[in-house]
Amino acid sequence: MGRKLLLAHENVPGIDRLDVYRAHGGYASVEKALKSMKPEDVVEEVKKSGLRGRGGAGFPTGLKWSFLAKPEGVPRYLVCNADESEPGTFKDRYLMEKIPHSLIEGMIVSSYALGSNTSYIYIRGEYFYVSRILEKAIQEAYEAGWLGKNILGTDYSLDLYVQVGAGAYICGEETALIESLEGKRGNPRIKPPFPAVAGLWGCPTVVNNVETIAAVAPIINMGGEEYAKIGIGKSTGTKLISASGHINKPGVYEIELGLPVEEFIYSDQYCGGIRNGKKLKAVVAGGSSVPILPADLILKTAKGEPRLMTYESLFDGGFQSGTMLGSGGFIVMDEDTSIVKNLWNFTRFYHHESCGQCSPCREGTGWMEKILHKFLEGTANLSDIDLLWDIQSKIEGKTICPLGDAAAWPVASAIRHFKQEFEEIAKSKKFKDVSHYERLHKPAMA
Amino acid sequence: MKVTIDGIEIDVPKGTTILQAARMIGKKVAPPAMCYYSKLKTTGGYCRTCIVKVTKASAQNPNPIPKPVASCRTEVADGMEVQNFTSQEVIEARKGVVEFLLINHPLDCPICDQAGECKLQDLGYEHGSAKTRYEFKRREYEMIDIGDKIKLHMNRCILCYRCVKLCDQLTDKRVHGVIHRGDAAEISTYIKNVIDNDFSGNVIDVCPVGALTDRTFRFKQRVWFTKPVDAKRNCDKCSGKVRLWLKGEEVLRVTARMDEWGEVEDFICNACRFEKKRKSDWTIEGPSKIDRHSVISQNHYEHLNELKVKAMKQQKALGFMPFDKRP
Ligand SMILES: Cc1cc2nc3c(=O)[nH]c(=O)nc-3n(C[C@H](O)[C@H](O)[C@H](O)COP(=O)(O)O)c2cc1C
Ligand code: SF4
Ligand code: FES
Question: In this complex, is the C-beta atom of B133 within 8 Å of any C-beta atom belonging to chain A?
Answer without folding.
Answer: yes
